[in-house]
Design goal:
This protein has 155 residues and is an alpha/beta fold. The protein has 2 domains: 65 residues; 60 residues, Chitinase A, domain 3 (Roll), CATH 3.10.50.30. It is built from 3 helices and 7 strands. The model has no long low-confidence stretch (mean pLDDT 91).
């Protein structure tokens, strides 16, 4: 088909309508650190959006606008959770150490979805491992991946 009959976007026009980032159906629980991260992200995005406007950078504006919509929605629905007072059972905000059946010892803090980073020791409360840990105590065994893990410490 000849391009003469096809209206395709090119250049900056291609960036004007980015789809919104998906928002989880789970409640937006956050730790105090997670709330602070959200607010820092929003401040940074507002600054970057202003810079993109000043530079008339349409591609950056489209990305910043999409991210601002996401983080503004997440901030408006954030439910700040207090630090757990009881270390007898795993709760949102708990730091849990497990020993897997292959001998690996891992420590995770259970946090909100947007602040989770398993490589740095934080798990989303909605993740399968965190859900398996919730309301368990030291000595309890949970399914973890293809094996099992025992809870050895809760802080």
């Amino acid at each position: 088909m000849s391009r003469a009959f096809v209206k395709e976007r090119d250049g900056a026009e291609a960036f004007e309508e980015l789809p919104d980032r998906p928002i989880s159906e789970h409640p937006n629980l956050v730790t105090p650190e997670g709330l602070a991260q959200m607010e820092e992200t929003l401040a940074r995005l507002h600054e970057q959006h202003a810079q993109a406007q000043a530079a008339d950078d349409r591609a950056s504006l489209a990305h910043m606008a999409r991210d601002l919509r996401y983080w503004t929605a997440r901030r408006s629905t954030a439910q700040l959770m207090p630090a757990p007072e009881d270390t007898g059972k795993v709760q949102f905000g708990s730091t849990v150490t497990i020993v897997r059946d292959d001998g690996r010892r891992q420590t995770f803090r259970i946090v909100g979805e947007d602040e989770a980073d398993p490589a740095h020791g934080t798990l989303s409360y909605a993740s399968p491992v965190a859900r398996a840990l919730m309301n368990k105590s030291v000595g309890d065994v949970i399914a973890a991946g293809s094996g099992e893990a025992e809870i050895v410490e809760i802080r």
